[in-house]
Amino acid sequence: MDAMRPGPKSEARIVTVEDGSARSRFDEIATEEPLEIRLVLAGESRTVAITMRTPGNDFELVAGFLHNEGVAANRTEIRNLSYCVDRDVDEEQRYNIVNVELARSAWPQIERLERHFLTTSACGVCGKASIDQLKLRAIEPLGDGPALDPAIVTALPDRLRAAQGVFASTGGLHAAALFAKDGSLLALREDVGRHNAVDKLVGWALMGDKLPLRERILMVSGRTSFEIVQKALVAGIAAVCAVSAPSSLAVAVAREFGMTLIGFVRGPSFNVYAGENRLAGETPASR
Known about the structure:
Layout: E1 9-18, E2 21-30, E3 33-41, E4 44-53, H1 58-68, E5 78-83, E6 97-102, H2 111-116, H3 131-136, H4 150-162, H5 165-170, E7 174-179, E8 185-191, H6 194-207, E9 217-220, H7 226-234, E10 239-242, H8 248-257, E11 260-266, E12 269-274
Parallel strand pairs: 3-6, 9-10, 10-11
Antiparallel strand pairs: 1-2, 3-4, 5-6, 7-8, 7-9, 11-12
């Protein structure tokens, strides 16, 4: 790996205090650095987004982000992804800039991206869209999707945690994972931002011609915000599970578009906030 290329983990000197005694040592922490996304068309370059992320799977992150925003519906609309090697770019920053060469003859509508997408890893772009705006993009309600076995749902958090390599050494990353309906892990991505982890997964699927993900289950660490549910919806994911709670707008979007939204998956129990019809077996609504 290039010595200037940032990795997902960094080393920091810390002081540990235990039982009143202090000692100095080194510890591994999750890396957080900016990523600038530039669209390139006919020799012209425009910056459309800057997000704070954990380095790694950057091209997937960019592809997933552009798919969610309607810039790239499929892999053929992205001609090339590359890090910036312009002479005027500091060597330490060249791996924090991704150039996206578009396979089209005219610029997409990027004014909204340029206006809204100076983002952070903490919460994404809060309130940037609404259910009505999703409808205006002609996003259709989800189809049948996978039938969900409750026993498999309750097993997902442990399977997600077991696959989190960087979290195991840093304790500071969120994760998003795609599972088949039988509970087998298909892909997992980590990042300091929950929404970034989902973008990386969607980008992986986009570049591998695996979209839409209608028969897959998305499992995320932490809570489910509007933005995570929105990204899942655009990718065609009909079932989203999380170890914590959803927001009110996440629930509203899930109900409006026919998504199954599950929270507080802990131990043998979980809460279903929308789409309980996909659960195998008897549910209160079916009695």
